[in-house]
């Protein structure tokens, strides 16, 4: 009794995916259960185009990224929803899981609350929502993550009416100080760009 023998890994496979030609090897394609099934008996019994290419009626542009994943197990971070549909067609379970994780991380990134602040301001903000008066640096990193340090030049605006900086007048809730503003130079400021961490545990989020 004859036994079905799949192609060798070095066998060159010519594909036409959505009108785009791809040349690769069976060794690359066999990572996909879809292609293992399709090519299990080789290419002799398959319907081909006149130039010998096997027609796959899927998105030819996205197949380039499917092929990239089959070669190096990497997924680029764009068009993930569309790429996930293609990964499902080619039965790439691990690729689907990777895309799902990337989509979750993207969702969290969009929901993050960003803030430009100093460490002292951040500690003060944290202490306002904490019952513990002795707030250290470590608890801050449980709730906030540091994105970057931003250096910039800030204008010094002085209130000539009270002979103080406008920021101090605002803290004291003084009125009409904006009518007595005078530029008093500039100074370099370094602040922290931070993001409030999201609770990814659904049980704690409820």
UniProtKB/TrEMBL annotation:
GO BP terms, alphabetized: protein homooligomerization
CDD domains reported in the protein's UniProt record: BTB_POZ_KCTD-like
InterPro entries: BACURD1-3, BTB/POZ_dom, SKP1/BTB/POZ_sf, T1-type_BTB
Pfam families xrefs: BTB_2
Residue ranges of domain BTB in the record: 11-107
PANTHER family: BTB/POZ DOMAIN-CONTAINING ADAPTER FOR CUL3-MEDIATED RHOA DEGRADATION PROTEIN FAMILY MEMBER, RE57120P
Name recorded for this polypeptide: BTB domain-containing protein
Organism, scientific name: Mucor saturninus
């Amino acid at each position: 009794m004859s036994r079905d023998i799949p192609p060798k890994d070095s066998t060159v496979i010519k594909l036409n995916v959505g009108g785009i030609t791809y040349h690769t090897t069976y060794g690359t394609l066999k990572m996909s259960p879809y292609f293992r099934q399709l090519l299990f008996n080789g290419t002799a019994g398959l319907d081909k185009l006149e130039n010998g290419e096997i027609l796959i009626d899927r998105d030819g542009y996205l197949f380039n990224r499917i092929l990239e994943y089959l070669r190096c197990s990497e997924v680029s971070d764009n068009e993930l929803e569309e790429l996930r549909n293609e990964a499902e067609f080619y039965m790439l379970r691990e690729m689907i899981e990777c895309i799902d994780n990337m989509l979750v991380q993207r969702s969290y990134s969009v929901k993050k609350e960003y803030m430009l602040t100093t460490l002292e301001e951040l500690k003060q903000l944290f202490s306002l929502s904490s019952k513990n008066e002795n707030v250290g640096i470590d608890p801050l990193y449980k709730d906030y993550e540091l994105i970057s340090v931003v250096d910039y030049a800030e204008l010094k605006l002085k209130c000539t009416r009270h002979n103080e900086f406008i920021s101090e007048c605002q803290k004291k809730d003084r009125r009409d100080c904006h009518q007595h503003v005078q530029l008093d130079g500039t100074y370099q400021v370094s602040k922290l760009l931070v993001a409030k961490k999201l609770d990814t545990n659904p049980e704690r989020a409820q």
